[in-house]
Amino acid sequence: MPSTYTDNGGGAANGSKKIFTYTFPILKTEDVKVSLNGVTQATTKYTVDTTTNPTQIEFNNTSIDSTLQESTGAPKSGVDVRIYRQTTVGKISGDDDPRVVFSQGSVIRSIDLNANTEQALYAIHELQDQPIEAPELQDGSVTSSKILDGAIVNADVNAAAAIEGSKLQAASSSNAGSMSASDKSKLDSIDFNARDDQTGAEIKALYEGESNTNAYTNAEKDKLLNIELNATADQTDAEIKTAYENNSNTNAFTDAEKSKLSNIELNSTADQTGAEIKTAYEGEANTNAFTDAEKTKLSGIATGADVTSSNSVGALNDVDLTGVADNKILKYQASSAKFVIADDTGGGGGSSTFTGLTDSPTNYTGAAGKTVKVNSTADGVEFVDVNTDLDQDSTPQLGGNLDVQSNEINTSTTDGNIVLNPNGAGVVEIKGDGTTNGTVGTIKLNCSNNNHGVQIASPPHSAGASYTLTLPNTDGNANQVLKTDGSGGLDWVDQTTDTNTIYTAGTGLTLTGTTFSVDTLNQNTTGTSGGLTGTPSITVNQVTAASLDISGDVDVDGTLEADAITVNGTALAASATTDTTDANNISSGTLAANRVAQLNQNTTGSAATLTTPRTINGVNFDGSADITVADSTKMPLAGGTFTGEVIFQKEITETVFAITDASSVALDPINGTIQTWTLGANRTATDSLTTGQSMLLIVTASGSSYTMTWPTMTWVGGSAPTLGGATPTAIELFKVGSTLYGATVGDLG
């Protein structure tokens, strides 16, 4: 019997495996079911793929059952995965079962019989594979003879089952069974958990588990053995000290030694090197220790040298000490090439003023907060105000962002410009507020009074716009407009006069504010000349023309006024209007229904005979016979949709369409339900069927045994047919949903 299910197809569940395969055939993907640990899963939790061989299902992460599936949808490790087929049999509302329904007089085809047979066989196979459920067992059908010996185990007996003692065999020396009354009394007198085979360890554990036994553990016993005889726990400090110091190699400190140790600083060493001592010494404040360089300098000074005596400077040939006194200074004198004694009158050190120095400011008076700069003659310095402007700096630079707060950047120069000069390919950038949906970069050009302004804004962030608009090379001519070249380049172009434009409007074209002149309005209302399509309606409030020639009907809802009107060669009176025109003046044509007040006709008599007889369904339209109008609920002669049952009492003749041979041909039932194709070479067929359509294709490969390349489709039996060469091969094609099916009927030899 063919299998109708596959367990753990392609390998057992491991927590990551999501694809499982199956090999049994199906009629439709909806028949494929999946269970996890015996629980049938919703069809939304997996997809069925029929394009692979073998076919497969794949779990997704929809409606995860955390007890059976991982978060990815993959069954957890150890979960049993069963893929099985469940073919629906019998007509159910909304289903297409059985696969094919035959009506009285319909054509019976082998492919339809095979489809119904396969459906029934699949259902029988599934029934045979299905385990028998408890409700399906007939009462009394399970007897003792049907129960295998030893099949009922302890777990099969309910714990609440009240089994009578008479049902239990009495105990014996060789067989366990029911208990006697005396045995029960003996058992009642024995403590719960009592036993007669306790080991020493068990007894020890029970004893030591009781309170106040003071039983020793092995560790406590070992500790007791290690305590010397006569050991005491109440020794005095003096006894302990004496006992300790009487032992050799204790190196116990005396009080004097301890005092000595206390006076030694922490981290003190007795083996410090000279370098360590030097470093420690020189690291102290106010030591004024000499470095080697300083010691060398000191050694170079002559013994007895006095650098504090004024007389010692006299040894210098370029120093004149004449006039030495308090508050005097040394001043170089170019005429004598010597340093001479001079008064401190120029800010040389002792005075609190700059007086006496011709190249310096006079004094500090009134100079608070000012700065010093070289004067305009470059022969001295002077006090000036601190300059906060940048005009003194020819190349000022910013170390950060410039925040003008609520102030402006302007110029005091009359009619002066403010120039922004980026470097190289840099640009002047106006930023937005830095958010996704906020304010974009905007330039505002104000009016002269700054009360109004026109803004130029960037497109929003959502537009993702990045482009460059390049202005024209000139300012253009009068009445010219800007035109883009499609790459951002703008140029001035002349406005052109529209002489041949097609205007399209849903309800009409309205032109106001000017004169719309039409030299010639030449339009066939059913054609497409003049640029108009369909059946246009042109509304003209006023037509001014030297002459107007209208070949068709004219509908005038208002008053028709004219100086002279000629109808079919007959001139009408100048005062005549359509409202007063007598019928005698109308020679031919058609009157609108609203122009006829009443049609004088006896409704009980026969209709007046028309000059040119007309018929409806073959009956003269003159009242001589009843006229039957076709019923819209009846079958049309061409096209239409049947919504109910159709019964054909006689034969049905289908169109046999001969396909014109080509390298690639679209298979389309619209050409006929029976089509023939004689191949002139190896050919390719494409799919033009829609769901619910079918056709019979008869292919002749000729004597050369040409081959056919088929579109993506599912073949009944698993493979495409081998064409019969010169013998025609019949193939049935039908489409369900998006799947094209093919079934080989056979060779027609």
What strand order characterises the main sheet? 21-23-25-28-29-27
From the alpha carbons, calculate the radius of gyration and give it in angstroms: 60 Å
Largest sheet report: 6 strands, mixed
Mean pLDDT: 78
Per DSSP E runs of 2 or more residues, the count of β-strands stands at 29
DSSP helix fraction: 10-25%
Explain the overall architecture.
The protein has 749 residues and is α+β, with helices and mostly antiparallel strands. Among the domains are: 5-129, no CATH class; 314-343, no CATH class; 656-747. Helix content is 11%, strand content 16%. It is built from eight helices and 29 strands. It has helices at 110-129, 181-188, 200-208, 218-225, 237-245, 255-263, 274-282, 292-299, and strands spanning 5-7, 19-22, 32-36, 39-40, 46-49, 55-59, 81-85, 319-320, 328-333, 338-343, 370-374, 381-385, 442-446, 453-457, 481-484, 490-493, 566-567, 570-571, 615-616, 619-620, 656-658, 664-667, 674-678, 683-687, 694-700, 708-709, 714-715, 729-736, 739-747. It has a six-stranded mixed β-sheet, with no helix packed on it. Strands 1-7-3-4 form a four-stranded antiparallel β-sheet, with helices on one face. The chain starts with a strand and ends with a strand. The model is unreliable at 347-357, 522-532 and 575-580 (pLDDT under 50).
Brief rundown of the structure:
This protein has helices at residues 110-129, 181-188, 200-208, 218-225, 237-245, 255-263, 274-282, 292-299; strands at residues 5-7, 19-22, 32-36, 39-40, 46-49, 55-59, 81-85, 319-320, 328-333, 338-343, 370-374, 381-385, 442-446, 453-457, 481-484, 490-493, 566-567, 570-571, 615-616, 619-620, 656-658, 664-667, 674-678, 683-687, 694-700, 708-709, 714-715, 729-736, 739-747.
